[in-house]
Design a protein that fits this description.
By secondary structure, the chain is an alpha/beta fold. The chain has two domains: 67 residues, no CATH class; 299 residues, Alpha/Beta hydrolase fold, catalytic domain (Rossmann fold, 3-Layer(aba) Sandwich). Helix content is 29%, strand content 15%. Strands 1-2-3-5-4-6-7-8-9 form a nine-stranded mixed beta sheet, with helices on both faces. The N terminus is likely disordered. The protein binds 2-acetamido-2-deoxy-beta-D-glucopyranose (2 copies). One 2-acetamido-2-deoxy-beta-D-glucopyranose binds next to strand 6. InterPro entries: AB_hydrolase_fold, GCE-like_dom. This is (4-O-methyl)-D-glucuronate--lignin esterase. Keywords: Hydrolase, Lignin degradation, Serine esterase, Signal. It comes from Coniochaeta ligniaria NRRL 30616.
Length: 434
């Protein structure tokens, strides 16, 4: 169960070729052990990904249960565009996913595929990479070779007292720094790498990732995600005091967007911890101005276009035609754990909408999959990237790593009050759990 690859994409059988209508996606996807599940036939992603013009304008969060193929406007028939959009938004679309088997075999891989197409760029095939690492004290040197090219970077580690090869500690890998002491005190190791050595936060295409993959249309958030994963590979190779099967990933703001991508693209990540992450993180594209300030698809794309692939740019001024929103990204991580932190004083990253729109909409899917306790929302006082966010989410992380029941209620949205259910109307029509 190594990191994900997308064989049906890279095999060249899907993109740019004719695909039968009832295409069945290969079952090789190692998202979950499927050996005991019934056979499932998937709708399959369209052979050509729809453009914004071919997708309905959805003013509310898209229905996570409706396959992309049945979301496109050519399904409208005689109903007309507005009626079709209304039915799609309210969970009345036809051919929705009906069972958790279909979710894991069809819909979750489909979401991962179209997120790479529309936003992240295609994650490199880890099967083609050779990872080597050496350790010297608290420093781990990482070298990745693929296609005759090599990229190198370093990570540092801090171990909690008592960690040993026979009693290995879980680890949180971070970029940009975090509050180490409470974690170390709780028996959790910390690893960190300098994200700029993996990929600069600019258009310069410098760093270990680009030393190997320069020329590809991949966003820097994906490059940072790759940095998390290769750090985990290296820890697993050289630090026996760390338990590589209990792993958290975190970062704040743009680095929170990167941590979210890290959790999304590798099933080895046990708990994903995006802090103050905003748009292209867990701030929604829709409902973007609910906290007074306004990070949007438009200004994130013009301010830091390198975070995503170029395709996302084609949706600028058409964000409501995106067939997904931040809740879709969160839901695709299920059933693995996700804890979201936002400060009520943080207006720019739209803390309110993350809490009352995105989190509860994603939780509908987690609940439906029987994993409702694996997603949590930490609404705390304070602002953008306050270190207090790390202590705020710690009891959740301890529950995931050690099974120690958290006394803190991560469904409580504090002063924001109840979820805004009108923003995800399909939730009143979730498929019957089978
Ligand atoms: C799935 O289908 C194959 C081929 O038809 C069959 O051999 C297999 O037993 C089926 N598995 C299950 C779990 O139904
Ligand atoms: C760690 O390495 C071992 C041996 O290669 C492998 O079986 C295991 O899956 C790896 N664990 C992680 C979390 O990568």
């Amino acid at each position: 169960m190594r990191s994900l690859s997308f064989p049906w994409v890279f095999a060249g059988t899907l993109i740019g070729s004719t695909v039968p209508l009832a295409l069945s996606l290969p079952q090789a996807q190692p998202l979950r052990d499927r050996s005991n599940s019934a056979n499932v036939t998937c709708a399959g992603v369209p052979s050509t990904f729809p453009t914004w013009q071919q997708l309905p304008t959805q003013t509310t969060l898209p229905d996570p249960f409706l396959p992309l193929k049945y979301t496109t406007t050519d399904n409208a028939g005689s109903a007309g565009a507005a009626t079709f959009a209304q039915s799609v938004m309210t969970g009345q679309g036809s051919h929705r996913i009906q069972t958790s088997e279909e979710w894991y075999a069809c819909r979750q891989p489909e979401i991962l595929t179209f997120l790479q197409e529309y936003q992240y760029g295609y994650y490199p095939d880890h099967g083609q990479e050779k990872v080597e690492a050496t350790r010297s004290g608290t420093s781990v040197s990482i070298s990745v070779t693929a296609g005759g090219k090599t990229g190198k970077f370093k990570a540092t580690i801090s171990l909690p007292s008592g960690a040993s090869a026979s009693k290995p500690a879980p680890v949180v890998i971070n970029i940009g720094g975090m509050q180490n002491q409470p974690y170390l005190g709780a028996g959790i190791a910390i690893a960190q790498f300098d994200y700029t050595t993996v990929a600069a936060d600019s258009n310069s295409k410098t760093g270990a990732f680009w030393d190997i993959y320069k020329g590809r249309d991949i966003g820097v958030l994906t490059a940072w995600a790759w940095g998390f994963h290769r750090t985990l590979d290296a820890l697993n190779l050289t630090v026996p005091e760390i338990d590589a099967s209990r792993v958290g990933v975190t970062g704040c703001s743009r680095l929170g967007k990167g941590a979210l991508a890290a959790g999304l693209f590798d099933t080895r990540i046990t708990v994903t911890m995006p802090m103050s992450s905003g748009v292209q993180g867990l701030g929604p594209y829709r409902y973007h101005a609910m906290s007074g300030q306004d990070e949007t698809l438009e200004n994130s794309k013009s301010g830091a276009g390198w975070w995503s692939d170029s395709k996302l740019g084609t949706f600028v001024n058409h964000a409501e035609n995106l067939p997904y929103d931040a809740h879709t990204i969160a839901a695709a991580i299920a059933p693995r754990a996700l804890i979201i932190d936002q400060g009520t004083g943080d207006q720019f990253t739209n803390s309110k909408a993350t809490a009352v729109v995105v989190y509860p909409a994603a939780k509908v899917v987690y609940d439906w999959l029987g994993a409702g306790d694996k997603i949590g929302m930490s609404v705390r006082s304070g602002g953008h990237c306050d270190m207090s966010g790390f202590t705020s989410v710690l009891p959740f992380v301890q529950q995931i790593f050690f099974g120690t029941k958290s006394t803190k209620d991560y469904t409580n949205l504090g002063t924001y009050g109840p979820p805004m259910t009108t923003t995800y109307p399909w939730a009143s029509a979730v498929p019957k759990v089978s």
